[in-house]
């Protein structure tokens, strides 16, 4: 089979249903992305856990940009991602030794306990401990689910099925914003309702992980060849899977003997993985510094900054959550037709231009003693934020999970995906912990700073990112030898296994 040619297999209802269940791991991720920001403007929550911030919020003389600049307060959001970036390395070991299913099961269990503790929290320590457990679940789910989807899906629709993770994430974002809107009206325990409803997606992921099939790649990796062939026949809808099975087996056998920790060493030290290292580290980095997480974590704060009240802020967040869902859903239809690179460039154009407009509005209209934007500018800000999340949701949002999970060689797939999640969570933590401080220090300039990163990403995409559309997962190594730049960096591919 030539490099880039998709296997001739049916797209079965079974594999689509399997991916729908696995992709539900994104529900919890999306819900957690926005739930903290929503409850953090609820007076009942602030007065109980962060009375100093509550006092600043009520102080009309306080600088609009600095009302929420409190490091302990920001730790409520960021602790989730600090735990996730540590947990992802343990998730890599579990995923390689016990399979992708077990990693997803661990994620569900962490989610359930974290939700229970956070909902019952009586003090800040208990609240943050619950967030830490949720972060551990996040690390396991985000390591395992994208890899699972990439390995189970047929190559010609791998992009669309893999992006189900992000579609579910967008559903979680929209659901979290809606829950926050109604929970804000329930006094004094509405914030507990927001945290407690997270138990629903946590339970779904736990149940689904028990009934999913394991991926053929994972089964072969652990020596279960007969079971792997059976699963491959089921998900491809045909008994004629010998060519694909042999490719997977060859990939596994020529890489036998490497432990999971050896996978990390190979990933960073072997020449043939240099392109993967760069892409796997930079794409998640760009996903964070492009500004979407700042919008998601603190979107309600930004709308309050524009002069909206608490209810209007949460209502506006629902609108942006809906835009995210629509954009992510639409991108699943186009990613395997137009390719990853074109979608990224489209998204970069929307993200950079919309953030530049938001920054310009704040620079021109929110200065000195001005406490809210004029109506026209407020509406424009909401529209531009929607344009931004559409650009992100159609491109960098899903592709930052898809590209690393599919572009990695099998021998370093678990390790490499862990690195991708680590980088993602590291910069997610940094953004969550520092954005409100940056907003206080740089004011409107922070939006131009974030917009600039989308321009840098566009240049990186044009020059250095290979197109993975329709390339079978076991043929990814050929991309680097065919690329104008990377072929000089990665060297020749590994020779075939002589045993085979």
Any overview of this molecule?
It is a single chain. The chain is built from 25 helices and no strands. The protein has 500 residues and is mostly helical. The protein has a single domain (18-490), classed as Up-down Bundle (Growth Hormone, Chain: A). Mean pLDDT is 82; it is low at 1-7.
What's the SSE blueprint?
Elements: H1 13-23, H2 25-39, H3 43-49, H4 51-58, H5 71-98, H6 100-119, H7 124-152, H8 158-162, H9 164-183, H10 190-196, H11 199-211, H12 216-221, H13 225-236, H14 242-253, H15 260-269, H16 274-289, H17 292-305, H18 310-338, H19 340-365, H20 375-394, H21 396-407, H22 413-442, H23 445-464, H24 477-482, H25 487-490
What are the key terms here?
500 residues; mainly alpha; Growth Hormone, Chain: A; 25 helices; globular; disordered N terminus; transmembrane helix; symporter activity; symport
What is the name of the CATH topology?
Answer: Growth Hormone, Chain: A
- Tally of separate domains: 1
Oligomer: single chain
Helix content: over 70%
Total beta strands: 0
- Provide the succession of SSEs: HHHHHHHHHHHHHHHHHHHHHHHHH
> Which descriptor suits the 3D outline?
globular
CATH class: Mainly Alpha
What is the overall number of helices? 25
**Straight-line distance between termini:** 16 Å
Low-pLDDT regions: 1-7
Structural class, please? mainly alpha
Q: Radius of gyration, rounded?
A: 23 Å
């Amino acid at each position: 089979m030539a490099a880039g040619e998709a296997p001739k297999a049916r797209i079965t209802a079974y594999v689509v249903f399997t991916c729908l269940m696995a992709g539900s791991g994104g529900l919890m991720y999306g819900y957690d992305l926005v739930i903290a920001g929503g409850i953090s403007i609820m007076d009942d929550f602030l007065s109980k856990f962060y009375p100093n911030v509550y006092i600043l919020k009520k102080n009309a003389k306080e600088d609009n940009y600095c009302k929420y600049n409190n490091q302990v307060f920001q730790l409520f959001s960021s602790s989730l991602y600090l735990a996730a970036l540590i947990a992802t390395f343990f998730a890599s070991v579990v995923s390689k030794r016990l399979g992708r299913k077990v990693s997803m099961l661990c994620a569900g269990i962490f989610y359930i306990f974290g939700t229970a503790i956070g909902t019952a929290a009586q003090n800040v320590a208990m609240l943050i401990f619950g967030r830490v457990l949720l972060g551990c679940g996040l690390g396991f789910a985000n390591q395992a689910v994208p890899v699972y989807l990439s390995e189970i899906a047929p190559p010609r629709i791998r992009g669309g099925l893999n992006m189900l993770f992000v579609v579910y994430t967008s559903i979680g974002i929209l659901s979290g914003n809606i829950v926050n809107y109604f929970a804000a009206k329930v006094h004094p325990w509405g914030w507990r309702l927001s945290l407690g409803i997270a138990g629903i997606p946590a339970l779904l992921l736990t149940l689904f992980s028990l009934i999913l099939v394991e991926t053929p790649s994972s089964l072969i990796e652990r020596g279960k060849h007969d079971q792997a062939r059976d699963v491959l026949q089921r998900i491809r809808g045909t008994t004629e899977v010998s060519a694909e099975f042999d490719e997977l087996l060859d990939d596994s056998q020529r890489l036998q003997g490497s432990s999971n920790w050896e996978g990390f060493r190979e990933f960073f030290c072997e020449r043939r993985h240099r392109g993967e290292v760069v892409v796997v580290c930079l794409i998640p980095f760009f996903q964070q510094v492009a500004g979407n997480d700042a919008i998601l974590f603190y979107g309600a704060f930004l709308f309050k900054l524009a002069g909206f009240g608490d209810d209007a802020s949460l209502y506006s967040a629902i609108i942006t959550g809906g835009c995210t869902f629509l954009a992510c859903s639409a991108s699943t239809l186009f990613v395997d037709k137009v390719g990853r690179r074109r979608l990224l460039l489209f998204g970069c154009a929307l993200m950079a231009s919309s953030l530049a407009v938001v920054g310009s509005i704040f620079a021109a209209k929110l200065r000195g003693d001005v406490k809210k934007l004029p109506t026209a500018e407020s509406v424009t800000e909401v529209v531009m934020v929607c344009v931004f999340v559409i650009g992100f949701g159609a491109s960098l949002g899903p592709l930052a999970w898809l590209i690393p999970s599919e572009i990695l060689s099998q021998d370093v797939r678990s390790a490499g995906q862990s690195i991708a999640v680590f980088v993602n969570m590291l910069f997610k933590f940094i953004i969550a912990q520092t954005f409100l401080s940056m907003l206080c220090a740089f004011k409107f300039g922070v939006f131009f700073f974030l917009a600039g990163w989308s321009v840098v990403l566009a240049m990186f995409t044009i020059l250095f990112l290979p197109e993975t559309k329709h390339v079978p997962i076991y043929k990814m190594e050929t991309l680097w030898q065919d690329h104008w730049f990377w072929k000089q960096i990665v060297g020749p591919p590994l020779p075939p296994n002589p045993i085979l």
